[in-house]
Amino acid sequence: MKRLEDHESFEMAFLNLLASHRLTGSLVFGGGTMLRLCHELPRYSLDLDFWFYKETDFSGFFAKLRDAASGGYEVTDAQEKFHSLVVEMIRARGTTKLKIEVRKRVPPTGSSEQKIAYSPFYASQVLVRGFTLKQMFKNKVSALIERGEVRDAFDLEFLLRKGIEPDLSDEERKAVTSRLKGFKKRDFDVKLGSIVLPDLREYYRVNRFAFLEEKLSFEEWKTKR
Q1: Edge-to-edge strand list for the sheet holding 112-117
Q2: Domain containing 100: what range?
Q3: Which residues contact 36 (CB under 8 A, 6 or more apart)?
Q4: In the chain, % of residues over pLDDT 70
Q5: Is residue 168 a contact partner of residue 216, using CB atoms and an 8 Å limit?
Q6: Does 125 share its domain with 167?
Q7: Residues 72 and 140 in one domain
Q8: Could you read off the pLDDT of 36-93 as tens digits, one per residue?
Q9: H or E element: which one contains 69?
Q10: Last residue of a domain, one of 87, 106, 131
């Protein structure tokens, strides 16, 4: 856990660096790391994922992002791709790399709001703009269907426990249910077990995503009444 705690401190330090360069105002923070730092998601996340808040000169922003990163850290990769900007860096040799990805997309109007990112492993808080929890549920449904990662299912269950209603189409519900049934013992023991907080590991090994499956089944029952 100490390695993950140190990496979370690294994530917060970089958010603080973005804020000091006045770059956070152009971005919408998303992904599991946003849920962790802004809403206390009980699992760790290793990357920082963003979208653009409004139409932007992508190449110009990429240069500012790369310069900000190289001013404080060793940049190991920096690419302007067709769909996104990617910068990867380390604090010191032998430490975990931090990957920053900014999608060249502007999210729907009203899908983001101001939030405070914080961590018990970092001294300062950082004001950011992040997706609403309702929009994060939509994003996570798409992510789970597309890539089938156990962490996305964990995040969906977390959002349901936060009170977000599971607004899915019949096709989405079937696809999500199929993904849930496809997870193996190794997904819970290794992939999820290595990033969730210790007191939750045994619960998910035994119960898997019973709460999420129950909610989806109930929603399906309601639509057929």
Answers
A1: 74-80, 84-90, 98-103, 47-52, 27-30, 126-131, 112-117
A2: 2-131
A3: 8, 43, 44, 45
A4: 97
A5: yes
A6: no
A7: no
A8: 999 999 999 999 999 999 999 999 999 999 999 999 899 999 999 999 999 999 998 8
A9: helix 58-72
A10: 131
Buried b (16+ CB within 10 A) or exposed e, 95-108: eebbebbbbbeebe
**How much is the pTM?**
0.94
The C-alpha atoms of residue 201 and residue 121 are separated, in whole angstroms, by 21
Tokens representing 113 are 């709001």
Instruction: Give the HSE-up count for residue 207: Cα atoms under 13 Å, Cβ half-sphere.
Output: 13
Question: Per-residue pLDDT averaged across 85-113, rounded?
Answer: 94
Average pLDDT over residues 17-25: 96
Q: Are 63 and 79 in contact (CB under 8 A)?
A: no
**What span, in angstroms and rounded, lies between the C-alpha atoms of 108 and 161?**
24
If asked whether residues 8 and 73 sit together in one domain, one would say: yes
Predicted confidence (pLDDT) per residue in 143-191, tens digit: 999 999 999 999 999 999 999 998 899 999 999 999 999 999 999 999 9
Work out the end-to-end distance of the chain between its first and last CA atoms, rounded to an integer number of angstroms. 47
In this structure, what CATH number is given to the domain that contains residue 125?
3.10.450.620
Is residue 118 located within the same domain as residue 148? no
Domain end among 105, 131, 157: 131
Q: How many domains does the chain have?
A: 2
Q: Are 16 and 29 in the same domain?
A: yes
Mode of pairing for the β-strands spanning 98-103 and 47-52: parallel
Number of C-beta neighbours around residue 134 at 10 A: 14
What are the backbone dihedrals phi and psi of residue 32, each rounded to the nearest 5 degrees, phi first? -65, -30
| Shared-domain flag, residues 114 and 144 | no
| 170 and 82, same domain (yes or no) | no
